[in-house]
Amino acid sequence: MAKKLYDCDNCPSYCCSYPRIQLEDGDLERLAAHFSLSRKEAKKRFTEKDSCEAENGKSLRILRHKEDDIFGTICTFFDHGNRSCGIYEARPQTCRDYPGRKRCGYYEFLSFERDAQQDPDYIAVTGN
To answer: At what angle do helices 25-34 and 39-46 cross, to 10 degrees?
Structure first.
């Protein structure tokens, strides 16, 4: 396994604010079991239809969101007190696989900003 080049403990849980946290059938089964619900009830309580469709034309399911002071909205299972996943052991596969590579783009951005703030000669250049 490749070494991770990021530290989730220093992040405000940016990935949990992604508007489309997609679920597969196994994810729904895991959620249902975690909450001792039927698959149908878990689907009804925790998910919604995505406006996008899969390549096969089938509707996709995504996790519902709730309000968040930092990002506006965030995953329904997000624990605001700890700023972490409230269902970590039952989280969807997409969350388990994130970021899908050795580096997290948000962590890289934060690291760059922190380094730049320590550089008195750094001047940010924007397109404005």
So the answer is: 100
- The amino acid sitting at 3 is K
Q: What residues have CB less than 8 Å from 16, skipping those under 6 apart?
A: 74, 75, 78, 85
Q: Tens of pLDDT along 79-127?
A: 988 888 999 999 999 888 887 767 777 777 777 777 778 777 767 666 6
Q: Residue 14 corresponds to which tokens in the numbers above?
A: 């940016």
pLDDT of residue 18: 87
How much is the pLDDT for 107? 74
- Domain range enclosing 57: 8-115
The number of distinct structural domains making up the chain is 1
Is residue 101 assigned to a domain? yes
32 in Cβ contact with 41 (< 8 Å) = yes
